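To illustrate the input format used throughout this study, we show a single complete record. The first block contains the structure-token representation of the backbone; no residue identities are included at this stage. The design step must infer an amino acid for every position from geometry alone.
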């Protein structure tokens, strides 16, 4: 269907965050004029020491509650921040907590409303340890799936990152303040403290920053990254912290340094606009006071940072010093564990299913094997670590769901002697653990390659040689290569699926629930199909091409494209109606569940200028929506691609790109059901 229309309004890039299904709240929950008047009255009464004290944390290591605090000011009744990681649950240093599926799995749900529930639940469990500020979400663009912290973010696409990160913040901030991280272009672990990421303005603004802009419209705090960006460390980058974040975007909140190694000099940090140094005053504290006394830093610079700290506290209701209140009963509640299981169900991606190998019928005999079949595998051991009791392994999930069904575990070292011929299906559980990927220095760092480990490959080769119905369940934080694709009948990507992951895996394999996850990251055929991953050089250059944007340029097909995922039912997408309005481009489309099971389909809209621009990706995700449909049912989805998706960043700033734009409606970056064209004058 082709539709030519006029673009009626000139969008205002300075005030147009991408729209999300959850909408936007005002940044300040109090009356901002009263807040500023309160600060005007308070600031002159604070000594330099008292001001400087507001700008750094108390100590290097977390306190007994597992938090990093900034000091309370008892004289002025200003409470300190009480911070804790993290992205998939309250940090392990604070004791047992619910392990939610990692953000990669949550990105695969493509369900911001569900993500808001996760944000709120993590907020509640963090607040149970006295926290008032959560060090999450992580929303860095996954430039390459070998990034050790790939699991912590929502994938490769800024529109998906913006929607999911924003939803997390909305949920978390019902309970605590959220600190979105790591600003910006932070996506390598092994050189993370030193690497200088060189990037031009256009890819920076169009690919690496748009979701931050969306999220800081509501997030109380931003964490500046360790890596350097075009020279200075991100935590000392005036262009990032002041020119972009504050001057261009109007962000009124605080910027906090990443921990210990992000800052280098007092003047550099202060003049860039860094407000709070964590976890202690390495270049702030006494050194900042001395710099003011020596005249190297103007008192107004300190006062401006203190103003932002006070504003953030007051705007988000941190009004008084309050005694620490710990309430472990708020953790590991049935509701949170059930939510973790639901998210694992919704985020697991059925990558392929040849000949209907899945679901497994209740009467069939199942052998389960694999090195990690009975391993509690919930992800990285770095700052996102969660101390989760009673994690349900894949084997335990299958065993417990199976009940009277015939399912047995064969350890890998007993596999050679096992008779597989009696089994109707063999399930191999393979993939990554915290030994293979994680945070740099604290844990395993970047992945060595996209391949599975040799021992997993050997198990798959062994089993596929002896059985013709083999299903592989994969754990891991991002894409894996699958040279065994044609030997294995079906594969389910479970990511690191959290405390109840094994139960979710079992329900999906047996068809008690219908898979609905969609990939938030491109799975390439080979690693060479992606841009190189350089975690050795201390200078790297980023452009606008990674993931599907890169494959669109090279014309190489993905193994499984961004947005891909199968279901046990089938869907048909009707002809879309595409209308240009003041609010962007509205796409309306019917979706029908044509199979005999209930299911969820995710419809994706990609937009790009019709005339090729070799310096830019051909298209980008502009909007998406989900249809939850009973068998045979039809629904109508409406999605709006925001005006910002039709703009490019040039020397003069954001410019609407006029002319013909192609609008593609489909079910992955490669499965496009309909193409329309609009004309932007
Ligand atoms: C990580 C942050 C984390 C902080 C506190 C840093 O090393 O990069 O993501 O929030 O530590 O644990």
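Output of the design step:
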């Amino acid at each position: 269907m082709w539709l030519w229309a006029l673009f009626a309004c000139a969008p205002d890039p300075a005030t147009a965050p991408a729209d999300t299904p959850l909408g936007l709240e005002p940044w300040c929950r109090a009356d901002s004029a009263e807040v500023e008047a309160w600060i005007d009255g308070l600031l002159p009464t604070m000594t330099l020491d008292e001001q400087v004290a507001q700008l750094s944390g108390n100590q290097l290591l977390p306190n007994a509650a597992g938090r990093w605090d900034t000091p309370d000011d008892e004289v002025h009744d200003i409470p300190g921040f009480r911070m804790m990681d993290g992205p998939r649950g309250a940090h392990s240093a604070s004791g047992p907590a619910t392990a939610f599926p990692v953000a990669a799995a949550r990105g695969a749900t493509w369900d911001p409303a569900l993500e808001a529930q996760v944000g709120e639940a993590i907020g509640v469990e963090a607040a149970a340890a006295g926290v008032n500020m959560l060090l999450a979400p992580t929303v860095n663009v996954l430039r390459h799936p070998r990034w050790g912290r790939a699991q912590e973010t929502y994938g490769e696409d800024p529109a998906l990152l913006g929607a999911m990160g924003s939803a997390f913040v909305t949920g978390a901030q019902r309970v605590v303040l959220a600190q979105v991280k790591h600003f910006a272009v932070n996506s390598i672990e092994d050189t993370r403290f030193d690497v200088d990421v060189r990037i031009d303005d256009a890819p920076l603004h169009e690919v690496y920053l748009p979701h931050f802009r969306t999220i800081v419209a509501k997030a109380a705090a931003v964490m500046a990254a360790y890596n350097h960006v075009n020279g200075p460390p991100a935590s000392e980058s005036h262009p990032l912290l002041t020119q972009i974040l504050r001057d261009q975007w109007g962000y009124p909140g605080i910027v906090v340094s990443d921990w210990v190694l992000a800052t280098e000099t007092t003047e550099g940090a202060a003049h860039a606009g860094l407000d709070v140094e964590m976890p202690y005053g390495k270049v702030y504290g006494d050194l900042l006071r001395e710099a003011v006394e020596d005249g190297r830093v103007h008192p107004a610079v300190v006062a401006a940072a203190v103003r932002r700290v006070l504003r953030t506290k007051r705007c988000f209701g941190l009004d008084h010093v309050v005694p620490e209140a710990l309430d472990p009963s708020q953790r590991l509640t049935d509701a949170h564990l059930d939510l973790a299981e639901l998210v694992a169900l919704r985020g697991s991606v059925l990558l392929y299913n040849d000949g209907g190998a899945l679901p497994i019928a209740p009467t069939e005999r199942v052998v389960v094997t694999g090195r990690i079949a009975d391993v509690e595998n919930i992800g990285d051991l770095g700052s996102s670590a969660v101390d989760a009791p009673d994690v349900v392994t894949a084997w335990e999930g299958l065993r417990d769901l199976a009940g009277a069904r015939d399912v047995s575990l064969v350890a890998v070292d007993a596999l050679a002697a096992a008779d597989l011929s009696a089994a109707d299906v063999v399930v191999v559980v393979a993939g990554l653990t915290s030994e293979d990927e994680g945070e740099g220095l604290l844990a395993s760092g970047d992945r060595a390659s996209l391949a599975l480990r040799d021992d997993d490959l050997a198990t798959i080769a062994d089993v596929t040689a002896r059985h013709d119905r083999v299903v592989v369940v994969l754990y891991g934080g991002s894409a894996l290569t699958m040279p065994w694709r044609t030997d294995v009948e079906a594969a389910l990507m479970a990511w690191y699926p959290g405390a109840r992951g094994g139960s979710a895996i079992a329900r999906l394999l047996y068809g008690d629930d219908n898979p609905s996850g969609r990939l938030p990251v491109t799975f390439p055929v080979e690693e060479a199909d992606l841009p190189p991953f350089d975690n050795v050089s201390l200078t790297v250059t980023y452009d606008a091409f990674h993931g599907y944007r890169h494959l669109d340029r090279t014309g190489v097909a993905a193994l499984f494209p961004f947005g891909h995922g199968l279901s046990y039912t089938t869907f048909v997408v009707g002809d879309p109606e595409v209308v240009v309005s003041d609010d962007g481009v509205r796409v309306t489309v019917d979706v029908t569940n044509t199979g005999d099971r209930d299911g969820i389909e995710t419809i994706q809209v990609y937009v790009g200028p019709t005339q090729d621009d070799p310096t830019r990706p051909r298209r980008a995700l502009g909007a998406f929506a989900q249809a939850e449909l009973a068998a045979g049912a039809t629904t109508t989805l409406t999605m709006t691609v925001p005006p910002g998706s039709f703009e490019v960043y040039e020397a003069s700033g954001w410019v609407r790109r006029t002319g013909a734009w192609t609008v593609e409606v489909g079910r992955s970056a490669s499965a496009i059901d309909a193409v329309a064209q609009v004309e932007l004058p």
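Structural context for interpreting the output: Residues 85, 135, 181, 258-259, 383 surround beta-D-glucopyranose (CB under 6 Å). The CA atoms of residues 229 and 452 lie 32 Å apart.
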